[in-house]
Write a structure and sequence with these properties.
mainly alpha
Length: about 110
Amino acid sequence: MPDAPEDLALARLLDQLLGHREAVPDDPFVLNVMHRVQREQRSRKLILFVFGLLGAGFGLLGAVLLADPIAHLFTGLPTVGIMQAALVAGATAAFYAWFMNDDFSLSN
């Protein structure tokens, strides 16, 4: 059954309205706001980078300062006990992942 003429006219009008693209003139206010936003984003990235490096430096310093006391802590323990503790920790993590049905996929 053919479409009614008013439906075809409405469809043509809708296509014409949707296809109409008006060029937006460059507004100095909009350009100024966009430049400000970009400048703020750059300063935010710079601040995050600097403080991230600072935090990494403090983390490395702490690791270096604690390396010797931690090494002395583990030298007094039996090797078999450390191995069994690592196996128990791994088994516990595997059981938790299986029991909670966790999905570790990286795809979205």
